[in-house]
């Protein structure tokens, strides 16, 4: 779909239902199927599997329009994680049989995908992962707890990282494609933000998984798969969040009477606009380093660390501006600021990564 058509969809179907979806549990499968018909849900997947076969820039533009025009970061996060953490990795690393069996339904909206990687106790640290996959006569038995997992309460298929060799540490991690019907239990988690993106704790109690549901080979879980999907998700979500922030800035400025704005507030809002422009440029650079032909891991990590500090600071400044302008009664602006609490997730890990950057 062209950009104008997608903008109309975001306004007419996403924004218009945002309030009701936020109050009624957040996720609407009929809306998800409409997104599939537009090619969003099958983005990046080859046409032979029913995908849109679009390039990454096109997907990011579409997701940015969905988030900004729909004022719905939650639904957009669910879309991005479905694509970058489940469908696209399955195409990149899965066997032909797994791709043929699952990708068509992941593209047409029949199935929703999720990735269960981080854990309540160890977070995203692969060396401390507790979940195990034990090889038995009839396949693997996976046991452990994952969470919080985006899309978990609604997902039909999960990409799960588990240890197949505890003695090997992170080198012993492997990836599996597991159907919810195999026996996965999910406990819904209320984050307090992103009400339109369902999250949950994934509980596996010796869940039986056929051997041919191993994605790639044993030992690929960390180095080849989870590291890749981490970078794919971050490289996509950051430009989308920047577009969402730009929309927030526009709504704030357009709600103000110029004659009533103090000089200091004028300067602050102008500075925030200039910063958003710079973030757009750096976001494009991050996307190119992640999906393009040039690969500079050091620069890519530095950009991730930069965004990890700069974006939350920008949002905090805008919260202050909204309060000063007495716009905190505007439900759309307030809701967008609440959703941007997503940027606060993982702040302690970020500080640790900064310490290791130079020393």
How would you sum up this structure, described in words?
The protein has about 350 residues and is an alpha+beta fold. The protein folds into three domains: about 5-105, Butyryl-Coa Dehydrogenase, subunit A, domain 1; about 115-220, Butyryl-CoA Dehydrogenase, subunit A, domain 2; about 225-359, Butyryl-CoA Dehydrogenase, subunit A, domain 3 (Up-down Bundle), CATH 1.20.140. Helix content is about 50%, strand content about 15%. It is built from eleven helices and eight strands. It has helices spanning about 5-15, 20-25, 30-35, 55-70, 75-95, 95-105, 220-255, 265-290, 295-325, 330-340, 345-359; strands spanning about 115, 130-135, 140-150, 155-165, 175-180, 185-190, 200-210, 215. It is globular, with a radius of gyration of 21 Å.
What is the CATH C-level name of the largest domain?
Mainly Alpha
Examine the coordinates and then state which fold CATH places here, giving the name of the CATH topology of the largest domain.
Butyryl-CoA Dehydrogenase, subunit A, domain 3
Broad shape: globular
CATH architecture of the largest domain: Up-down Bundle
| Alpha-carbon Rg, integer | 21 Å
Counting DSSP E segments of at least 2 residues, the number of strands comes to 8
Elements, N to C (H/E): HHHHHHEEEEEEEEHHHHH
Number of domains: 3
Average pLDDT reading: 92
The biggest beta sheet is recorded as:
4 strands, mixed
Helix content: 40-55%
Helix tally equals 11
Beta-strand percentage range: 5-15%
**Low-pLDDT stretches:** none
**Which structural class is indicated by helix and strand composition?**
alpha+beta
Trace the largest sheet across and list its strands: 1-4-5-8
Cα distance spanning the termini: 48 Å
């Amino acid at each position: 779909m062209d950009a104008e058509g997608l903008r109309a969809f975001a306004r007419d179907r996403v924004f218009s239902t945002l309030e009701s979806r936020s109050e009624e549990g957040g996720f609407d499968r009929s809306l998800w199927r409409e997104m599939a018909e537009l090619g969003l849900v099958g983005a990046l997947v080859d046409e032979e599997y029913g995908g849109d076969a679009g390039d990454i820039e096109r997907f990011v533009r579409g997701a940015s329009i969905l988030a900004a025009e729909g004022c719905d970061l939650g639904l957009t996060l669910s879309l991005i994680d479905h694509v970058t953490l489940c469908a696209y990795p399955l195409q990149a690393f899965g066997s032909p049989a797994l791709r043929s069996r699952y990708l068509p339904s992941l593209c047409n909206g029949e199935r929703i995908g999720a990735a269960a990687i981080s854990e309540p106790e160890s977070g995203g640290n692969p060396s401390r992962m507790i979940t195990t996959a034990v090889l038995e006569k009839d396949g693997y038995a996976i046991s452990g707890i994952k969470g919080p997992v985006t899309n978990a309460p609604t997902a039909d298929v999960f990409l799960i990282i588990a240890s197949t060799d505890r003695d090997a540490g992170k080198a012993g991690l492997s990836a599996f494609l597991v159907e919810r019907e195999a026996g996965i239990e999910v406990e819904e988690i209320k984050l307090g933000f992103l009400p339109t993106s369902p999250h949950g704790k994934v509980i596996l109690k010796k869940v039986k998984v056929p051997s041919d549901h191993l994605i790639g080979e044993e030992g690929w879980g960390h180095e080849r798969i989870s590291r890749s999907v981490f970078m794919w998700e971050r490289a996509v979500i950051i430009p989308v969040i920047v577009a969402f922030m730009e929309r927030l800035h526009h709504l704030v400025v357009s709600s103000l009477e110029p004659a009533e704005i103090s000089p200091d507030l004028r300067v602050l809002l102008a500075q925030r606009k200039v910063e958003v422009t710079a973030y757009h440029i750096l976001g494009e650079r991050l996307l190119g380093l992640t999906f393009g032909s040039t690969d500079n891991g050091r620069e890519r990590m530095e950009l991730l660390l930069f965004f990890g500090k700069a974006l939350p600071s920008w949002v905090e400044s805008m919260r202050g501006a909204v309060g000063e302008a007495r716009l905190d009664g505007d439900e759309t602006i307030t809701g967008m600021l609440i959703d941007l609490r997503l940027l606060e997730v993982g702040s302690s890990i970020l500080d640790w990564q900064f310490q290791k950057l130079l020393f």
